[in-house]
Amino acid sequence: MTELDHLHWLALTQEEPVDPKRRIVDAHHHLRDDEGHRYLLGDLLADTRAGHNVTHTVFVETMASYRTSGPERLRPVGETEYVAAQARESDHRATRIAAIVAYADLTLGDALDEVLDAHLAAGEGRFRGIRHPAAWDANPGVPPGYMNPAPDLMADEGFRRGVARLGDRGYSFDAWIYHPQLPELAKLAHAAEGTTIVLNHLGVPLNVGPYHRDAVRPEWHSGMSQLAGCPNTVVKLGGIGMDSYLFRTGWSSRARPPGSDDVVAWWGDDIRWCIDTFGPSRCMFESNYPVDRDAIGYTVSWNGFQKIAADYTDDEQDELFSGTAARVYRLNLES
Known about the structure:
Oligomer: single chain
Number of strands: 10
Largest sheet: 8 strands, parallel
């Protein structure tokens, strides 16, 4: 299926927003300008302004637009430069790209500060933290993390020093791991107590290869509970559309894409368990677009989240949809 055909498929399921007035900070999205995988500012704005009140967003690195020359350690700064230019164009729009989470090799040692300084300069006031993916699993049926990290990366002393250095400088660390690695992340959180650690995509409770959703839930609960015991951790509630390679919901192979009630039926109990375990002030919703576009529409996704969160108080919903993200990524929601 071509990208255009896929967009036509997504359009087969249309919904009005459940709560069009509630402020939303989309805490996790990407931008790309690769052939066949383009998702630029115009695409983002078309999604964020389709009905929900998405006022601010947080861009998270995706290994795109790197510099093609110069020191290897500084090449990821090209992505920050590119996104900052896109963000500048969004400043006077109804939705602003307000924060950038970039990539840096956290095992660089003393050279890490040079890279952080370069991201800071390139980010034009939006640079907030680093994601150095650590997703890894020994089973061949599980896709390798996209940077092919070492299996013991989070236990590496150099990596831990890098994560701690982020906190020293006021930056956060976004963690992209699989659910069997949650206890390792909890140990990392204890070793870097001064750094805010943002767990991506619900901790990725795998439903692929040897892992089966119902069978992994006790292990996922155990790991998430360990992590919740670390006060410097927060969790992103999303990544739910990664159907074709991690979660196997079957949504992407349907004749019509899922609706928000399908989202609630599949993810509602698990997401509410996360909220109750971490507390609303340590949880934030995310679209993970355009990756989640694999299986679910943008408006449908936020409708699902709003239905899942409907029984929480207004103040708790404010935390889930905007407040937590604003604090963690230091956003001025009035600008």
